[in-house]
Amino acid sequence: MTTLGKTAGALFWMFRYLERSENLARLTEAGLRMSLTRGDTAVQEWRSVLTTVGLAQAYEETGLAYEPAQVVNFLLRGRNQGGSVLSMIEKARDNARLARTAITREVWEATNECFITTRDTMARPLREADMPQALGMIRQHSALVRGALHGTMLRNDIYNFARLGTFVERADNTARIMDVKYYLLLPSLSHVGSTLDTNQWDMLLRSLSAQRSYRWLNPNETKAIDIARFLIFDGRFPRSILFCALKISENLKWLGFDYGEERPVHTQAVKLAKDLQSISVEQIFERGLHEFLQDFMASNAAIAWQIEKDYRFTE
Amino acid sequence: MGMDKIFFDEMVDEGGQPRPSFSGYCDWLAEQEPAKLLKKAYEAEDLFRKTGITFAVYGQEEAEERLIPFDIVPRIIAGAEWAKLSRGIEQRVRAMNAFLHDIYHRQEIVRAGRLPEHMVSANSAFLDRMIGFTPPGGVYSHIVGVDLVRTGPNEFYALEDNARTPSGVSYMLENRETMMRMFPELFTQMKVREVSDYPKRLRRSLSACAPPACKGDPVVAVLTPGIYNSAYFEHAFLADQMGAELVEGHDLRIVDGRVAMRTTQGYQPIDVLYRRLDDDYLDPLSFLPDSALGVPGIMDIYLAGGITIANAPGTGIVDDKAIYSYVPDIVRFYTGEEPLLQNVPTWRCSEPDSLKYVLEHLAELVVKEVHGSGGYGMLVGPVASKRELTDFAAKLKRSPAKYIAQPTLALSTVPILTKKGLAPRHVDLRPFVLVSPERIDITPGGLTRVALKKGSLVVNSSQGGGTKDSWVLED
Q1: Of A1, A109, A312, which has the smallest distance from its Cβ to B51's Cβ?
Q2: CB atoms within 10 A of CB B26
Q3: Quick check: B57 and B464 in contact, CB under 8 A?
Q4: What gap in Å lies between CA B226 and CA B314, rounded to an integer?
Q5: B262 within 8 A of B220, measured Cβ to Cβ
Q6: Measured between alpha carbons, how far is B382 from A94 in angstroms, rounded to an integer?
Q7: Residues A136 and A168 in one domain
Q8: Last residue of a domain, which of A103, A132, A153?
Q9: What residue in B sits closest to A161 (Cα-Cα)?
Q10: B60 vs A157, A257, B48, CA distance in Å?
């Protein structure tokens, strides 16, 4: 069997949207937690969450207050801007329908159910009391789709396209989340003892599902430079930038084996991973963390674009 | 003919005793708790929703994706009944393919005076481009879904011949899957003939009609109008089950004299295209110029032997309800036999005497558009209001040739499960027939459609009908 360009594209985007919706849900959860524990800076926190996902202006234009209930509903079920969790899950499902013949029944049913449950849960605005449960439900359903993928899919080109979508999106999300908070990690601010900073660091780690892993690896002390090193370079952490970059080049390598030829994007991906491995977190700080993250996001986006082109997702 | 007539019930006889085909099921049923059965019905619905077996209804925005209601009481056909029925279907389908070949070649049936010439030449489904061309393997209609209704013991009528792109086969397959999941014990107690190899047979049938340009194993693809089409689920389902590609028009282009699909590794030729798209949309260069769903130039490649299109373009002419009335003659002409399967008596409103009769008896008849399908635009006389009858009479007088009329048939009933227990409802049956050069293959059973409203005779899913699993028993 061959894989249609359209199908590869649908798989790639299906998993991009799933990844993006999961990250947005997690970011919302972290924001919600922050606003519950630190009422005084809540508005600022919500602004930074909205900035991370590129919706700061869209939200400003709605004229809504920066209250948890309003922001969370906007992020989870806002229908008019295509950037909410619900609309991303809907797009993921549309792409799954398009790629229906390439995925197993298990993957399709998990995706379909993820959509049905999310749509039903968000049929009406969520009350604050219902939010934690709704967010947990989204996390659980994303895990079910991922589990079905790993447990039932052949390890062939189709699987590689699904994984490429996941890691391109995840790398972008990790960099984006760090970039909005990069100033918190600067050495000048990382003096010990400030409660604000530790809380902010917690929020950052929580947004990336990294809080447990980080604590497990660094049980005694929290330092900004360690957090940055962990989020960028730790090859054991599945959301670190390096982990994603290596996965991208690994999946492209498998595609190259499968198809018997490599495409221009291989060179780009290998180079990006190599570059990452040849610098240290100290050097990044020296050159500027913000600039580093911006550069990385641009290279990552260029790879995504080249994948679409090399594998003929569209005409 | 009113609504008070006695209908043939397939489950029980006039004395309320189970008929032989249903006796095993009725024994089982007697032991079931009604509340548990109802619960099973909800579970079945949930299964369908999870599987995503949905159906889009035109003109109902809020119901963009809807489930076709499924009833858990099966429709059971005895093996001997089925054997007789399938001989009739086979004869009819064979004759239809012969007819299609003839009207695109010498038109012997017209020369013999058995079919008026204008029925062919003035028919909008007749394609000039097919004249003189024989499709690969000589097969015109690869997949046929003949709609049957029953009025008594061994009394079946063919109501429509869906020879273009019959749909519903995915429901036949999923209904069976669901029943086996819900009631495994029934299938160990009763010998029900298998339907699940339909996709495999479909693939084999299609592959047997590979075009001259095909080298090696035929590459088969299903052409769909896209994910927003009402039957998209079925298109994806069939492609998936057959191991075929699911393509849309924009995945295809002509490369080196072949129709090729854009894969991740470049363009690759397709040998057999099972298209779920009407003729009009197939090729903007030959038919509707603004169709974005088809493939520009595919007709040229087809006529040059570069691809097989199933069903062949131009087969729609046998779906025409005016041609339908000639089918018994068509069967006699090409097979030299008497039709085994009866036609419903049909008045062609284009003929003045018939029109007169139809207008006088409108309240007793069913009137259909010649080119209509899906139950749209039809009049069911006995249940129509006075106003509807007058309006329809006016339409009939304005363009009589657009309509045919048939008596209201006493459609058989099979019970459905309602909150108040079993209740009889009218059903029809669409068996699916696969035609390849060597053989005609009929899947035992087919899709039973059921009118869920009490007394209703309209079973179309677009008009609120449901479906049932259809069992053919091994004798």
Answers
A1: A109
A2: 14
A3: no
A4: 22
A5: no
A6: 44
A7: no
A8: A153
A9: B264
A10: 39, 48, 20
Q: Which residues of B touch A108 (CB under 8 A)?
A: 52
Q: How confident is the model at residue B392, as a pLDDT?
A: 93
Compute the mean pLDDT over every residue in chain A, rounded to the nearest whole number: 91
Choose between A108 and A220: higher pLDDT.
Answer: A108
**What structural domains does chain B harbor?**
212-306 (3.40.50.11290), 345-408 (3.30.1490.270)
pTM metric for this prediction: 0.89
- Residue A5: name the closest of B454, B106, B265, B194 by CA: B265
Alpha carbon of B239: minimum distance to chain A alpha carbons (Å): 7
A3–B264 C-beta distance less than 8 A:
yes
A256 touches chain B (CB under 8 A): no
Query: How much is the average pLDDT of A27-50?
Result: 84
A97 touches chain B (CB under 8 A): yes
Which backbone phi and psi does B196 adopt, to 5 degrees?
-70, -10
Give the residue from B399, B381, B402, B404 showing the smallest Cα distance to B327: B404
- Shortest Cα distance, chain A CAs vs residue B50, angstroms: 6
* Record: contact A1-B243, CB cut-off 8 A: yes
Whether A315 and chain B come into contact, CB under 8 Å, resolves to yes
A120 touches B at CB < 8 Å: no
Most A CBs within 10 Å: which of B237, B264, B273, as the mutation test of the A interface? B264
Instruction: Pick the last residue of a domain from A84, A119, A153.
Output: A153
Residues of chain B with pLDDT under 70: 1-5, 55-64, 372-375
Residue A168 has a pLDDT of 98
- The residue in chain A having the minimum alpha-carbon distance to the alpha carbon of residue B269 is A2
Q: Do A146 and A255 belong to one domain?
A: no
pLDDT score recorded for residue B5: 58
pLDDT of residue B64: 62
User: Given a cut of 70, is residue A192 above it in pLDDT?
Assistant: no
Q: Which residues of B touch A112 (CB under 8 A)?
A: 50-52
Mean pLDDT of A47-54: 90
pLDDT for B60:
46
CB contact under 8 A, A6 and B265: no
Residue A249's identity, in one-letter code, is S
Task: Please state, as a whole number, how many other Cβ atoms lie within 10 Å of the Cβ of residue A71.
Answer: 26
Chain A with chain B: Cβ pairs closer than 8 A? 66
B contacts of A5 (beta carbons < 8 Å): 251, 262-264
Dist. CA B23–CA A213, nearest whole Å: 64
State the total domains in chain A: 2
Query: CB within 8 A of A120, min separation 6: which ones?
Result: none
Same structural domain, A247 and A272: yes
Strand order in the sheet with B220-223: B245-247, B220-223, B272-275, B308-310
A157 contact B CB<8A? yes
Which pLDDT tens digit goes with each residue over A163-177? 999 999 999 999 999
CB contact set of A17 (below 8 Å; sequence gap of 6+): A88, A89, A91, A92, A95
8 A C-beta contact, residue A12 and residue A169? no
B246 and chain A: CB distance < 8 Å anywhere? Answer: yes
Region of residue B460 (phi > 0: left; psi between -120 and 50: alpha; otherwise: beta): beta
Tell me which residue range forms the domain holding A222.
Answer: 155-315
Quick: pLDDT tens for A211-251: 899 989 888 777 888 899 999 999 999 999 999 999 999 99
For residue B1, the model assigns a pLDDT of 38
